[in-house]
Every structure is written in structure tokens, then in C-alpha cells.
Specification:
single chain; 147 residues; mainly alpha; 2 domains
């Protein structure tokens, strides 16, 4: 139960961070990607802040002997870049660039019950379900694109 509460709290903090930074607005993301037009550097600052906080968190976690709410750490064991990883990254980037939103902000935006966001999340979840029941390559692409 404590793990569920911790996960819920992390999700709330993440969602609040997306809202405060404006990253739930597709226009902000598309403005960042418009490098030859009205470029908006907000996303770069949000990413830099997230990397700094994550780096500090991982450094602290690596110094601990064991995690607080699990039997052991589940650190990634692979470091290679293979075709499914590259394909998933490309597909994720194309989708993100086309609509200006990715799964995290889309889930936050579900609260507004906007039809395009509901369709986006439904399509995303359907693709995840197909990936889980489909080929190994498609499930790798789906799970790696999530992070």
C-alpha cells in the first residue's frame, strides 16, 4: 500500500510540474520545435531542470544500500542502441512533433475531457495493448518509448 501511495504522490508531483511549466500546452512544445520561426526555449529550461533533479535523485539512490519500498533496485542492464530502440525513438519523436504532446502531458490533459486528447490517449493505450500481445519487437518499441 505504501508503494501505491508513493507512486501516486510521484505522479501528482510530475503532473503538477507539467502544469506549472506549461508543458501540457501543445503550443509550447511546438514552439520549441519551431527553430526557424517563433522559437520558445521554455522546454529546454524545463528539460534542464528535470535532468538536474533526476541526476541528484539517482546519485542519492546509488549511495543507498537498498530502496525504501522494494527488495532491490531495478537498474537498467542494457546500454546498446538497437533497431527497435531507434525505431521507437523516431516514431515517438515524429508523433510528438506532429501534435506537440506526449503521453505524460496527455494524461494530465485528460482532466479537461478534450476530445482530441481522449482520442490520443485511447489510441496510445490501444497501441500499447497491441504491442504487449503482438511481436516482441513491437512491445520493445512501445515499452522503450515510454521511458
Amino acid at each position: 500500500m505504501l508503494l501505491i501511495i508513493a507512486c501516486f504522490g510521484c505522479g501528482l508531483i510530475f503532473g503538477a510540474g507539467l502544469l506549472v511549466s506549461g508543458m501540457t500546452q501543445p503550443e509550447k512544445v511546438l514552439g520549441f520545435l519551431d527553430i526557424f520561426g517563433a522559437w520558445d526555449a521554455t522546454l529546454a529550461f524545463v528539460m534542464a531542470g528535470a535532468v538536474a533533479v533526476s541526476a541528484a535523485g539517482f546519485a542519492l539512490a546509488r549511495r543507498r544500500g537498498a530502496p525504501a519500498l522494494a527488495a532491490r533496485y531495478h537498474w537498467p542492464t542494457r546500454s546498446d542502441i538497437d533497431t527497435p530502440l531507434a525505431a521507437g525513438a523516431v516514431l515517438f519523436g515524429i508523433g510528438w512533433g506532429l501534435v506537440g504532446i506526449c503521453p505524460g502531458p496527455a494524461l494530465v490533459n485528460l482532466a479537461g475531457l478534450s476530445v482530441p486528447i481522449v482520442v490520443f490517449v485511447a489510441g496510445y493505450e490501444l497501441s500499447r495493448m497491441r504491442g504487449a500481445s503482438g511481436t516482441a519487437a513491437s512491445s520493445v518499441i512501445t515499452s522503450r518509448a515510454d521511458g
